[in-house]
Amino acid sequence: MNKAQRALFRGVNKLNNIVKITLGPNGRNVIIDRKNGSPLITNDGVTIAKEITLPNRQENLGADVIKQASLKTNTEAGDGTTSAIVLATAITNQARRAIALGYQPIQLKDALLTAAHKALEILPQHVRQIHRYEDLLQVATNSCANFTDGAMVAKALSKVGPDGLISLEMNQTGTTQLSFTNGVKISAKIASPYLNTKVLHQTKVLVTNGTVKSIQEILPLLEDSMQNKTPLLIIADDYSPEVINALVLNRAKAGLQIVAVRSTATTDCAVITNATLISPENDLTLSHATTAHLGTANQVIFEHEQMVILSDEKSPLFEQHLNLLKDELSATTDDYHRTRLKERIANLTTTAGLISVGCPTEAETMEKRLRIEDAVAATSNAMRDGVVIGGGLTYLKIAKSLNSRDIGERILKRALPAIYRQINRNYHFNPKDCTAVDAATVIKSVIQNATSAAAILITTGAII
Q1: Residue 322: what pLDDT?
Q2: How far apart are the C-alpha atoms of 213 and 238, rounded to whole Å?
Q3: Residue 166: which of 355, 366, 311, 384 has the closest Cα?
Q4: Is the Cβ–Cβ distance between 268 and 348 less than 8 Å?
Q5: What is the helix (H) or strand (E) element at residue 280, kind and residue range?
Q6: Given this model, what pLDDT does residue 333 score?
Q7: What is the pLDDT of residue 283?
Q8: What is the pLDDT of residue 405?
């Protein structure tokens, strides 16, 4: 093994040594020093991993490869991010020993991926579906390590369902509360990266199904927004370059809270926010639009080419619009059109949960928000795909079922118990008394991504 490879493996273990102390219900927190803002205190593995940059660049490359397992697991399952790093490190160390004994890295890579596939075939044997509120409560409480917060997450998901909308925000009241509102997720793209924002609160909404061609058309609305210091969301089919440039300039120089998005779902946006759709069909043009035509939204959250609108101000025409969509659904025979109509109807009739997180200090608020965010993801996955016994015990059970003499299975058999051992090191418990449960999706994602990251790393022979 050459110098570069040794540096990569050192980086993997240094990353793991920092993150592994957070694993399990009694995992410790890590304080992250941030140049801007208060320190972040968290035990969320992926959040910690993102902030780690090792001083040795070669070691840091090894850590970055293993981080990918955590990042992918976070995207797929929303939880299990620390477990992914712990398992990827264990696999890497076991594979390193095999290489020292003469096994070829490419051979090991193929064998590991095959072994992971077999492990995932064993997983369904240990899965049970959940149907009771008590099961949801157990998963949520286990994930966020707090009964009160777990009960809030379970209540929210029992109402909106596994695919429902639950958004989180931070407040300064010092209390954490759950509320429900009308919510809809709309395909939308922010018109310029210079208008990017994460969320708008208590915003006015202008909706038009045409192109905003001139800034003069909407100037009175912009001036009203500026004078009253009210955020403004503009939803339109398109914008001229002149309008985009003017909006960016107003936001940068005048501090105007404005976001312009392109979306084809203008009619749906209008009825959910009680806005008057500016359209020739309504005998309206932008130049004649006034503040009376604007809708309102409690909160608008912007994601990747999507936005979530939470609003209590549905249009009086909402039911009429919904019935028209249902009639259209009954009349159409085109499968694609039917699917799209079903999605629109489901979106418009969705109840969304809003969890407002507040603690005495900003650091505690941010830490709690990350815990609840993980719990929402884990509990949603559990509702869809079932649960397994937690505490790392399912990894042990899968390891016991890997009996082949194939080198990939032998490595995975030795590596999988690492998660149980680390949880037990952080939080001593009797396996016979373990009542914790994990979402099956989390276990699947951890095994798949940890093996993939480790398999790629062991085939690396040089650094440029």
Answers
A1: 84
A2: 8
A3: 355
A4: yes
A5: none
A6: 81
A7: 87
A8: 86
- Report all structural domains of the chain as residue ranges with CATH numbers, in order of start: 3-128+389-458 (1.10.560.10), 133-176+358-381 (3.30.260.10), 183-348 (3.50.7.10)
d(CA 211, CA 236): 6
pLDDT digits (tens, 9 = 90+) for 271-292: 889 999 999 888 889 988 999 9
Q: Residues 148-199: pLDDT tens digits?
A: 999 999 999 988 888 777 888 888 888 899 988 777 888 899 999 999 888 8
Residues forming beta bridges with residue 260, ordered by sequence position: 234
How is residue 128 annotated by DSSP?
Answer: B
Distance (Å, whole) CA 77 – CA 332: 36
Closest C-alpha to 290, from 220, 187, 242: 220
CA distance 413 to 402: 6
The Cα 178–Cα 160 span in angstroms is 12
Which residues, given as ranges, of the chain have pLDDT below 70?
A: none
Angle at 184 between CA 156 and CA 260, to 5 degrees: 130
The residue behind tokens 């109509």 is 341
Cα 148 to Cα 373: distance, rounded to the nearest angstrom: 14
